[in-house]
Amino acid sequence: MTNNGTETQMKTRQPDVAAAASEPEPTAPTAADDGSDAGDVDAPQSVKSTRRQRSVSVSVRGLVAGAVIMALVAAVAALGWLYIDARHQLDAQALQSTNAAHAEKVALDYAVNAATMDFKDLQSWHVKLVAGTSPELNKKLTDAGTSMEQVLVPLQWSSTAQPLVAKVRSNTGGIYVVDSFVSVQTKTVQAPEPLQSTATYSTTIDSNNNWQITDVGGIGSALGPK
């Protein structure tokens, strides 16, 4: 009885062993089985790719923006240079016009003073004749004035002058040559009624030396007809 019972129990347990033997052994999960692991592996590559694309996009935009900024800076610099150059030219032209006008005024004022004479007061005329002249020209005009007295006194010369026009003939390195014209009314012992004439002067003025007059031509023309 005992053996039969034991055999019966062993027979009853055999199917459990067989079933256990037929069950597959547990295996370690693979990457394919674990969806979360596969996602973790793939996700960084996708992120890296996206980041690279963004980096390239940002780099291209940065280059384009930099190029545009450089172009704008270059354009502004060019416009600024053109403006400064034009401004310098305008300033130079304005200065040249101002200096020419000043030279013409100096020459015309001198011509009027040189053509205004009175035999009763030739000393005043001498002073005006050398006013504003260089030392070298001062001596030449003083000598010329002394010589002219020999004509002015006997003729009892008296003349007044009015400015007509003065024009710069040339300008070389700040040395102006100006032609001046004055209208002269003259009375003498031979012609008590005023006679009108035009006196012409050629005046050289050095703007680099306090606008000194360095040469004068045409002093004799102020005498007009005798």
Description:
The chain has 226 residues and is of the alpha+beta class. The chain is built from four helices and five strands.
What's the structural blueprint in terms of helices and strands?
Elements: H1 2-22, H2 35-115, E1 117-118, H3 122-130, H4 135-155, E2 158-172, E3 175-187, E4 195-206, E5 212-217
Antiparallel strand pairs: 1-2, 2-3, 3-4, 4-5
Annotation keywords:
226 residues; alpha+beta; Nuclear Transport Factor 2, Chain: A; 5-stranded antiparallel beta sheet; 5 strands; 21% strand
Under CATH, the topology of the domain at 93-223 can be stated as: Nuclear Transport Factor 2, Chain: A
Compute the number of strand runs: 5
Specify the overall morphology: rod-shaped
Name of the CATH homologous superfamily of the domain at 93-223: VirB8 protein
User: If strands are numbered along the chain, what order do they take across the biggest sheet?
Assistant: 1-2-3-4-5
Count of helix runs: 4
Low-confidence stretches: 6-15, 17-22, 28-43
Give the terminus-to-terminus CA distance. Answer: 187 Å
Rounded Rg:
56 Å
Main CATH class of the domain at 93-223: Alpha Beta
Strand content: 15-25%
Order of helices and strands: HHEHHEEEE
CATH architectural category of the domain at 93-223: Roll
Major β-sheet annotation? 5 strands, antiparallel
Q: Which class do the helix and strand fractions yield?
A: alpha+beta
